[in-house]
Amino acid sequence: ACCVTDSAPANAVGEALVCTITDSALMSDHAAETKRLFGLASETAETDSGYKLKFASEHAKDLFEYIQFERKCCGFIEFSLTFERGQGAVWLGLGGSQEAKKVIGGMIAD
After folding, report:
1. Which residues, in sequence order, are CB contacts of 51 under 8 Å at separation 6+?
2. How far apart (Å, rounded) are the C-alpha atoms in residues 67 and 59?
3. What is the pTM (predicted TM-score) of this model?
4. Is residue 108 within 8 Å of 44, Cβ to Cβ?
5. Whole-number Å distance between alpha carbons of 72 and 87
6. pLDDT by residue (tens digit) across 36-95?
């Protein structure tokens, strides 16, 4: 799934933890892409503020495009990409407040 789609609690600074996508078809397509992309991860690790997912290096472009879209709809999530040396793995980092971490955990679990 995408991030939260219904009324959700705000984080500690009052930022709503909701997806801003209003087009149901676009939301559905994005949820399917999130599920597909997260399914390609070879490893998932919990961090203090979120999660990181490990991908083969050939998925770097897809991960960058995912972040570009996700930043528009779920502004409460912090993103990072970490590239291991050479052609090593790429790690997608997703984090934020503890409330955001719960939402991210739900996204990964779906």
Report:
1. 44, 45, 93, 94, 95, 101, 104, 105, 108
2. 12
3. 0.82
4. yes
5. 29
6. 999 999 999 999 999 999 999 999 999 999 999 888 888 889 999 999 999 999 999 999
Q: Which of 39, 46, 34 is nearest to 93 (CA)?
A: 46
Question: pLDDT for 20-34, tens place per residue?
Answer: 777 777 778 888 889
Q: What is the DSSP string of the chain?
A: --S--S---B-TTS-B-------HHHHHHHHHHHHHHHHT-SEEEE-SSEEEEEE-GGGHHHHHHHHHHHHHH-TT-EEEEEE-STT--EEEEEE-SHHHHHHHHHHHH-
Q: What is the largest CA-CA distance in the chain?
A: 44
Identity of the amino acid at 110: D
